[in-house]
Write a structure and sequence with these properties.
- It is found in: Periplasm; Secreted.
- This protein is an alpha+beta fold.
- Among the domains are: 51 residues, no CATH class; 161 residues; 236 residues, Beta-galactosidase, Chain A, domain 5, CATH 2.70.98; 138 residues, no CATH class.
- 23% of the residues lie in helices and 32% in strands.
- Strands 33, 34, 35, 36, 37, 38, 39, 40, 41, 42, 43, 44, 45 and 46 form a 14-stranded mixed beta sheet that branches. Strands 4, 6, 10, 12, 14, 21, 26, 30 and 31 form a nine-stranded mixed beta sheet that branches. An eight-stranded antiparallel beta sheet has the order 22-23-24-25-32-29-28-27, with no helix packed on it.
- The model has no long low-confidence stretch (mean pLDDT 95).
Amino acid sequence: MSDAGFFGRWSAGAWKVGPRLNYAHAGLKPVESAVKAGDYALAKQRLLDYYRARPAIEAGGFSHTTWPGALELTPSHIWTLGSGEVYIKTLAFGPGEKTVTADVTSSITSGRPGFFLMSRYKDAVIALINSRSKGSGKPTLRLTLADGSVKTLHPTHDTYIWAAHPGNVYGTKYYMQVSDQGTGPFTGETRKAYLRFDLGGVTGVKKAELTLTGTADTAKDIMLYGNAETFDEATRTWSNTVQNTFSWEGDPGGFDWKLPGGADKEYLYQLPRFYFAGPLALEYQKTGNEQHARTLISLMTDFIKDADAYDADQGAGSYPGNLHAARRLHNWIAAYEIVRKSPSLTPEANTAILKTMNRAGLHLQVNVNGTPNKMQSQKITLLHASVYFPEFRVAPAWRTNAADFLSAQLNDSTYADGGYKESTDAYLRGYLRQYVDVVAFMQRNGITFTATAKLRQLGRFLMDQSYPSGYGPAYGDSDSLDLRSTLAKLGELLNDPELLYVGTSGKSGEKPAHTSALYPDTRVAVSRSGWTADDSHLRINADRGNHSHPDELAITAYAYGRPLLPDMGTFTYSTDGRAEWLRRTTEAHNTIEIDDQPQTSTAAGGISHLITNSAFDLIGANTESSAGAHHERSVLSLHSGLWVVSDRLKPVGTVKQHRYEQNWHFAADANPSIRSGTEATTTAFATGANLTIVPADPAEVASTLRDGYYAPRFYSVENAKYASYVKTTTGQTTFDTVLLPSKGAADTSVTVERLPVGTLPSHEATALSLNGGAGVYYKSWTTKAPRAFGSYAFDGKLLYADAGSIVMVDGSSVERAGAPLVKAPAAVKDLAVTFGGDGTVRIDGSGLTASTDSAKAIGIAAPNAAKVILNGKVVPFERAGALIYAAA
């Protein structure tokens, strides 16, 4: 933008080029006078003087206030993407052999048992770091544990990669080479080293020290990073490594703001978003050290020179896209409020920065596109710009445009049931958190927000998705984040006691009036036993949208304080094979993959029903997202602590064999095993809850533990085993599976045996005997009818019974060995009967009322009944032989 384009051009008593500044604004008259005189140099100086003297205006916050290495490395144009590699310190090697020790406690205790080494400076020196293959002086990790004991480990894998030889493997070499030289982010001489330690079974680390021995001809500084990525030294090469750290150190051109070869594509976005602006500006504010202001200002002006007008199609100020321009402008506004008084800010630099921010705002005003979170971010930034820069002529229009958009957008970003249109809880959390912040900002600045009801509805959706621990289930492109602070702040903002209760883990507010929830438009159902950390939680989805995975009818399950069937995460957005498996395959989720193909996201499907009861939930779902077969999944969730999953597969088209793979995934430290014969899978976490998975047809499935991956958070990935049950067959088929969580060690005694239901195949009606007849389960896939199985007879859609309970759906009669257990005059929608050892009988069901009239009431076999509680209230009962009558 020319000076005349920004300041305006005055000639013959009129503006020949209109200014972008509002000279009617108090304090800008000296600038206007210089412009009218044609003295743009003086105008720039006076504009800088004005901003240095201007009273503070709320500038918003930074997207990041800390970033490891930002203060030390960013001035040298060294940048790390995300949290995949976290800078620890720089180590000095050479001349000759030297042994160095670094405190890596923070890396180990934050779940990063791997390390990465890279040259600090671009020079010709090559450091040779002893590897684990060396006879002496190999890398050592010394751990001091909570009990005072010391554990010493050597790497399980270590290697280096070399850009000049991208396909070579160096995992067996005695030395790991580290070197970097030349200009640009890397050259053929760039070599990086990687180490990984196995900390399985190690807990209570109080201190961790990494010792490395290496040699170099002259002094050599090497950066040490922690990471949480698994790798195999026998296969790691430059070509298959997703790299997160690149260096332009010594390059006179500095960053080129483009995507380096071999980097995750997020690199292209994060660097131009100026995530390092917060750490640099805040450190300058704290210390007054002019180096930090000088660094930040030079990076801003370098970006303007190199990249600001790269994308002619999108317009100046938008590189490399709308969301990234918004994130950058947001950080620049907050940074400008701090550095505007810096002696390092020259009139030329100040004007260039203001021109760019003005141009970016104009772009964001008229260009809005992308997913809900992207559009929201664009307009939030525009709103902040309108408040912070009242001197811009267009500021009032920005204010109106942004405020109207943010109030209206919630309708566009949510389904009619209140669910979020992006299929990821992490992005939903961020979306809500930004609304919390911007609505409070609007209130402080007298700007009206009109969509509080819709915001509350979306907050309730996130609340329902949350695990009882308050963390997210990590579906879609997500990791499991603590949702509580967002829910608490939203509860405070909206005066919502239920959001506040969940957000504070019950310390404030009111416990939600419901537990389980159905979102039919979003195509999600959640079964929840309660709102304490030890309650159970099961989520099933057929959702889709941006950031979704091919995971329809997938289950995530939590009980007794632990995710027992987690979503396996995302890792990165790169083309790394592990990330592609996690994000692109159905096999990586707790559902059924058909014919080795991932699901599509355009086919029909949904949640057909959620029947809720104080004692249980019954969920039905279906999808046609696989070309080979229609998949239906039914989940009986007993709040007493048991899940039964029934799957039915109906082939599409001509009769041919299909391969059906039912998968169950676990965290990396689950230590699963499969028992031969029953083919039951059990987990063996070192402490806490575990899970037993028992298939009903062990002889009909090929059961194996397979190698997969688990990404507990972005940029972290671990090897993990999962249980695979495969059927290859023609025609319709079923899987019936019992999932039994345990507070401690997994129950290895659980047995499941299929019971015949007359001559009906299991895809019409299925029945199971649990634990040698101690319990029974029955489900009709077709029209209900009186049917017998084992010693039971039942006329409804679903039955579960054991010594302490009876659960039934849409039935009126249950008999065992010819004796009635339940006898109702008409079908009951849902009924749960629980028998207490003290003679208390609990009856729960929809629409039930107290009644002792045997002609209208439900007869229940309870010969030892002493008290009856109906839907939480004590009611009278009458006895007739073995039956009691208390509810109709």
